[in-house]
């Protein structure tokens, strides 16, 4: 459902991605969703630097988990 909201309600999509991520950070779908939603926010909104850095940090954590699971 969060993916369907990316184009129309990015804030709600972000909340849903956060819930999925914090609920199960080891879940590959939650990891990919977090990365995709935050990437969209970074390139398609007028966010401030602090927000962007927080999103990048969360994306990095998700990506590291993805890579560690692939090993």
Give me the secondary-structure topology.
Layout: H1 2-5, H2 10-23, H3 28-44, H4 49-70
Fill in the keyword field for this structure.
mainly alpha; 0% strand; globular
Task: Describe the overall structure.
This protein has 71 residues and is mainly α. Helices cover 80% and strands 0% of the residues. It contains four helices and no strands. The longest helix is centred in the last third of the chain and has 22 residues. The radius of gyration is 12 Å and the shape is globular. It starts with a helix and ends with a helix. The model has no long low-confidence stretch (mean pLDDT 91).
User: Which series of helices and strands comes N to C?
Assistant: HHHH
Structural class: mainly alpha
User: What oligomerization state is this entry in?
Assistant: single chain
What share of residues is helical?
over 70%
C-alpha Rg (nearest Å): 12 Å
Q: Figure out the total of helices.
A: 4
Summarize the main sheet.
Answer: none
Q: Mean pLDDT score, rounded?
A: 91
The number of E-state strands comes to 0
Q: What overall geometry do the principal axes of the alpha carbons give?
A: globular
| Percentage beta strand | under 5%
Distance between the termini: 30 Å
Uncertain regions spanning at least 5 consecutive residues: none
Give a brief outline of the structure:
The chain is mainly α and 71 residues long.
């Amino acid at each position: 459902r969060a993916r369907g909201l990316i184009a129309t309600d990015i804030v709600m999509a972000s909340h849903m991605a956060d819930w999925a991520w914090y609920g199960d950070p080891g879940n590959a779908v939650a990891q990919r969703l977090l990365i995709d939603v935050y990437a969209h926010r970074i390139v398609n909104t007028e966010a401030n630097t602090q927000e962007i850095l927080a999103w990048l940090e969360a994306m990095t954590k998700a990506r590291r988990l993805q890579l560690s699971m692939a090993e």
